[in-house]
Amino acid sequence: MENFTGHRDPLPPLARSAHIAHAKYALAHLPGSLVDFDASRMAVVFYCVGILDLLGALQEETTELERGSWRNWIWEQYLGGRYGTGFRPGPFMAGTSVNSGYDSPHIIMTYAALLSLAMLRDDYSRLNRQGLLRFVGSCQNRDGSFSNTPNGGGDYDLRNLYSAFCICCMLGDWSSIDVERAISFIASCRTYEGGYGQLPSCEAQSGTTFLAIACLRLAPPGPRPGPRLTPQEQARSEHWLIHSQDASGGFRGRTGKLPDVCYCFWGGAALRILGAHEKINAYAFTQFIAACQFPFGGVGKAPGQPSDPYHTYFALAAAALYTPRLEASVRAYGQWDSITSANLNPLLNATEETVKWAWRHMRVEDSGRRR
After folding, report:
1. CATH code at 127?
2. φ, ψ for residue 196, nearest 5 deg
3. Helix, strand, coil shares of the chain as percentages rounded to 5?
4. What is the pLDDT of residue 370?
5. How many structural domains compose the chain?
6. Is 291 helix (H, G, I), strand (E, B) or coil?
7. Full residue range of the structural domain in which residue 269 is found
8. Per-residue pLDDT, 8
9. Domain-located, residue 20
10. Long-range pairs for 235-238 at CB < 8 Å and ≥24 separation?
């Protein structure tokens, strides 16, 4: 597929100021259109703070008072109990810091909270690292999968497994989970197309394919030398992902579906991890993202659709991965260069500076020296 890396036509302007305002508003006042997100407010915080981080706006467009209030709100969701310590989705269930059994920590929200704290440059002085490891281990099931709450509670699928792997990676400690059993579960989700479903026997999706490929790359070395994917498996995954790009430049989440801006990240990031990112049309890819910008700030799922923090974050994260491949004259028009400096880490889904902060301050072996 032609990648148009040398295309000279400028991109539509990046509505940077409007996107910043969209993120800050959602942090302060959850819009009525996002009432369904009330049960997962921690994810909204991750998307909004992530938007500001990607745009390089956290220091220059927010105050220390604002950043401190966001950090404190995140820590107010920190719970301890018999299964260890982690973060709940928000304060909608209870106002206690002790796990009552009804408002237990949630593994996806714990991943979101930890990375949000790294974006906000928290020092993790309140983090119980051994308790966090115990919580992650308590979410693993016998088949190697992970539930989103301890002891088999809630849903179990690749989203939870990815969150567990990211947390262990940030802590630098994999001792609380059975990595090889988790890898076997990932393999059971692989489809004939080369993609991965959310669970065994499910249809392949770009989102879950990203999760699987990222986990295989994040995992520590296994008992056998070499990569977790065979060359044949990688080639089939690349083929399926590459052909998920629509003629518009956007990516489809599933075969035969319409493109959606969030899948630009899921599919694009998976190809970046596989080293196959030069095989897609990067110019059309970024044009599609630009066309999904909402006139009043934020990015919608498709051109003409209303915006929300979820699609805005993943659109900008996808642009951070692929806009640098375009000529400077194309990027510079309308501030697209402000995203290229983000230098996104596709494995953990955060800027490289944020990932380095997390590694520097969260590692289990370093915590003793800081306390």
Report:
1. 1.50.10.20
2. -130, 140
3. 55, 10, 40
4. 39
5. 1
6. helix
7. 16-370
8. 61
9. yes
10. 235/194, 236/193, 236/194, 237/194, 237/195, 237/209, 237/213, 237/270, 237/274, 238/194, 238/271, 238/274, 238/276, 238/279
**Is the separation of the CB atoms in 66 and 58 below 8 Å?**
no
Residue 309 has a CB neighbour count (10 Å cut-off) of 28
**Domain membership flag for residue 342:** yes
170: how many CB neighbours lie within 10 A of its CB?
23
Residue 85 host element (H or E): strand 84-87
Q: Is the pTM of this model over 0.90?
A: yes
User: Would you say residue 350 lies in a domain?
Assistant: yes
270 and 213 in contact (C-beta within 8 Å)? yes
Whether residue 9 lies inside any domain: the answer is no
pLDDT digits (tens, 9 = 90+) for 87-100: 999 987 655 555 55
Residue 294, classed as helix, strand or coil, is coil
Three-class SS state of 344: strand
Please give the Cα distance from 40 to 88 (Å, whole number).
9
- Give tens-digit pLDDT for 278-329: 999 999 999 999 999 999 999 999 999 999 999 999 999 999 999 887 777 7
Q: How far is CA 197 from CA 149, 159, 351, 367, in A?
A: 21, 11, 27, 37
Residue numbers in the chain where pLDDT is lower than 70: 1-8, 93-103, 331-334, 366-371
Assess contact for 315 and 299: CB atoms under 8 A: yes
CB 301 within 8 A of CB 318: no
CA nearest 262: which of 273, 254, 250?
Answer: 250
DSSP 204: P
| Contact criterion met (CB below 8 Å) for 29 and 309 | no
51 vs 200: CA distance, rounded Å: 33
